[in-house]
Design a protein that fits this description.
The chain crosses the membrane at residues 125-143, 158-181, 216-243. It holds the Pfam family Steroid_dh. Its main location: endoplasmic reticulum. By secondary structure, this protein is of the alpha+beta class. The protein has two domains: 3-81, Roll (Ubiquitin-like (UB roll)), CATH 3.10.20.90; 84-253, no CATH class. It has six helices and four strands; from the N terminus they run ββαββααααα. The N and C termini lie far apart (62 Å). 47% of the residues lie in helices and 9% in strands.
Length: 268
């Protein structure tokens, strides 16, 4: 038989009269309850809701059935507006590009003061179209929202935590590599020495490897074709750059340059 629930609010929520009366099937989940609340309160999507019992016990797992959590017909529950939310994927991508900007200002030391004019259009297409537009549509869209992932393994906290940990390690590895390169070159000079330390002991261009790894983490986390395409294009371009840098290292340092892979540890 249906479950009839009375929903009160904790804190201010505009746009609806409380208490709400919500009727659900007897096998309804917390996620279905949130859907019912969202239908009645337009400004309260499921991502902004925190559902609690009268004892202030949170019903946090959207996949759990209400009856398994001890909720019975006639019970009074409470909803709190958590405020505007930002998706995990969007947060990771924005942090990635913020890091890139800060590194450009404070870390990178460039060999040349200028760049070819064509590179402006090539780089802009890569970042504005493949990243800015394609990933925005394919990754930041509601397809990857909490409601869309209900019941899927991609919503597993363990899965998400694993992807985030890989992303964080890749970002820190990339930063470490850039700092090593910065310290090799005194300010205002073009002096270049053999980089050592970190993943440089295994490959010539660990910064590119870490960059690819961070986007692999985003791709796996979202299972998005847009993210996959961006990752593949980026990896292809960085592999070309890595081959050139590896050859330049070997040509410049010849017999003193240690035996290393080019970009991917143990592989290439």
């Amino acid at each position: 038989m249906p479950i009839a629930l009375s929903i009160e609010r904790r804190g201010p929520i505009k746009g609806a009269q409380f208490p709400l009366q919500v009727a659900l099937r007897d096998d309804a989940t917390v996620g279905k309850l949130k859907d019912g609340i969202s239908e009645r309160v337009a400004i309260l999507p499921v991502e902004r809701q925190r559902i609690t019992t009268s004892e202030n016990r949170a019903l946090g797992n959207d996949d759990k059935r209400l009856e398994d959590l001890g909720v019975k017909s006639g019970d009074k529950l409470f909803v709190k507006d958590l405020g505007p939310q930002i998706s995990l994927t969007l947060l990771l991508c924005m942090l990635h590009f913020l890091k890139r900007e800060l590194e450009t200002i404070f870390v990178h030391r460039f060999s040349h003061a200028t760049m070819p004019l064509f590179n402006i259009f090539k780089n802009s297409t890569h970042y504005w179209i493949l990243s800015g537009v394609l990933i925005a549509v394919g990754v930041y869209s509601p397809f990857h929202g909490e409601e869309a992932l209900l019941g899927l393994w991609r919503k597993s906290p363990t899965f998400l935590a694993t992807c985030v940990i890989v992303w964080v390690l890749a970002e820190f590895g990339n930063l470490q590599t850039h700092i090593i390169l910065m310290r090799l070159r005194p300010p205002g000079t073009r002096v270049r020495n053999i980089p050592r330390g970190g993943l440089f002991e295994m490959v010539s261009c660990p910064n590119y490897f870490y960059e690819v790894l961070s986007w692999v983490a985003v791709t796996v986390m979202t299972m998005s074709f847009a993210a996959l395409l961006f990752t593949l294009v980026s990896a292809a371009q960085m592999t070309v750059w890595a081959i050139k840098k590896h050859k330049a290292y070997r040509s410049e340092f010849q017999g003193t340059y240690p035996k290393r892979k080019i970009m991917y540890p143990f592989v290439f």
